[in-house]
Amino acid sequence: MTASTITIRRATPADAGTVTAMVREIATHEDQAEHVQVTDEHWRQLLDRPEVTVLLAERDRDAIGYVSAVRQLHLWTGGDVLNLDDLYVRPGHRDAGAGRHLMAALAAVAAPEQLLIRWGMEVDNVDAQRFYRRLGATLRPKILAAWTPAAHSALAVDHGPSREPGGNAGSSPVLTSNDQL
Prior knowledge:
- The chain is 30% helix and 22% strand.
- By secondary structure, the chain is α+β, with helices and mostly antiparallel strands.
- The chain has one domain: 3-Layer(aba) Sandwich (Aminopeptidase), CATH 3.40.630.30.
- α1 (16-29) crosses α2 (40-46).
């Protein structure tokens, strides 16, 4: 297999089944399959959203991998960034240039507006770290946190946004001196 036979294209709603299958594959590979909840129908809707980018790598019209990213406002700069969610190449197609082609295509999406592309990876995934360093990415240690609805709902009930007359229901909660952070 040569890298020249790989084509990259943007996924459309018609590709929802393919994207769903590969998302399940990467989640299974990472022992996270139980967390995948998105369906083909939901992917059809997501792939129609302008801020969602999913690029498919194909060889002989068969999907062999994808990269997904979401365009998001970055409050420090006031501009947008692309948050890379997944880069995945199916077994049997790895180490043949598909990952590099996918990253290059994502760079081409970001280049016209000079968008920063950022992502995370597991600390022990040294192969991924080596790959990204070869692309010229800067790696820095950072701890990512996740706060599930089950974990934060009790706190949210007691500290919702102020609903005072004339107040904005979407504003930040007002904390009193009795609140402990």
